[in-house]
Design goal:
The protein has 315 residues and is α/β, with parallel strands linked by helices. Among the domains are: 1-33; 34-131, Elongation Factor Tu (Ef-tu), domain 3 (Beta Barrel); 246-290. Helices cover 60% and strands 16% of the residues. It is built from 9 helices and 7 strands; from the N terminus they run αβββββββαααααααα. A hairpin with a 2-residue loop joins strand 2 (54-57) and strand 3 (60-70). The longest helix has 34 residues, at 169-202. 7% of the residues are buried.
Length: 315
């Protein structure tokens, strides 16, 4: 029996369609011989997610994204339809998270397994989460820095504008003169430093001698530390003795005596009193001198004529 050409063409077309379908499924990473279980999850943002993106469990591919649809017209919520290998049982406290699957920032889903003893059933909605990858964290950290850098650049630009306004031709000349003065000062400092080096080099022996003498003095002070301590203690004892001797009262009494003596000397100098008259009055001096001469003459006369003054009678 001969097979009609139409049947041959139909069989070949059907086989081609099946091969094409299974080839596409294979290229999409779907295991056509494995039974799948469908679940749903909801995200606020599905940036980087596409149909056929893989789903991972502890680094192993266990499923893929079947479809992504909007829940509302404002695109505030997205329903993600996922297919997971039926061998994987998902506890009902698990989460499906978006994460960066490579260094380029590609997105994928992964299942964070929970600890519950009860599992999700087919077509249940699993809770969602978003995990920031390294690039996301880097972007989050860089964003504030970029904002601050922009602010700094704006301030720097304003500063440059202000400087350009201030830096007129005369100001520039003044700055150049100041720089020249600073240069001359630096040269002078170099000369002073050179001269100082020469002085230090020429006086090196004297400086060494001074340092040696200083070291010797320090050594002597160290060696005589005990004697110095005793001297200080003795000085302290002398100070205590002077303090106990009521030196202040003695000095006060001495001042009073000196003032009295000064008054007496001033009165004598002014001719007051007998002592003052004796010193200041010539008459008293002359009378005393005359009386002294008369007394001397009397004594001489007594010596020469004792009988004149002394009479002896014998009974």
């Amino acid at each position: 029996m001969k097979i009609k050409t139409e049947y041959k063409i139909g069989v070949v077309g059907l086989v081609t369609i099946l091969v094409l379908y299974f080839g596409i499924m294979f290229l999409k990473g779907r295991d056509i011989f494995n039974v799948e279980t469908s679940y749903y999850t909801v995200f606020d943002d599905v940036s980087g997610l596409y149909k056929s993106n893989y789903i991972y469990l502890n680094g192993m591919k266990v499923g893929y994204i079947k479809d992504i649809t909007m829940i509302d017209q404002n695109a505030r919520k997205f329903l993600v339809w996922i297919a997971v290998t039926s061998d994987v049982k998902i506890p009902d406290d698990s989460k499906v998270a978006i994460f960066a699957s490579d260094m380029l920032g590609s997105k994928a889903l992964k299942i964070n397994m929970g600890m519950s003893r009860h599992n999700f059933n087919k077509k249940d909605t699993i809770g969602s989460a978003i995990e920031n990858g390294m690039l996301d964290q880097l972007a989050n950290n860089i964003t504030p820095i970029v904002v601050k850098l922009n602010s700094v650049m704006t301030s720097f630009d304003s500063l440059l504008v202000g400087v350009n306004r201030i830096m007129d031709h005369k100001t520039q000349e003044n700055i150049l003169l100041s720089m020249e003065s600073i240069k001359n000062t630096a040269v002078s400092l170099d000369h002073i430093t050179l001269n100082l080096d020469k002085i230090l080099d020429s006086e090196k022996n004297k400086i060494r001698t001074i340092l040696a003498n200083t070291e010797s003095i320090t050594s002597n002070l160290k060696d005589n530390n005990e004697a110095l301590t005793n001297a200080i203690n003795n000085f302290s004892d002398i100070s205590d003795t002077i303090a106990k001797a009521n030196l202040g009262k003695t000095i006060t009494e001495t001042n009073i005596s000196l003032k009295t003596l000064s008054n007496i000397l001033r009165a004598i100098e002014n001719g007051e009193g007998n002592a003052g008259l004796l010193i200041k009055d010539d008459k008293l001096y002359k009378n005393l001198e005359s009386s002294t001469k008369s007394l001397d003459a009397l004594i001489e006369d007594i010596k020469e004529n004792p009988k004149k003054y002394v009479k002896l009678s014998i009974f």
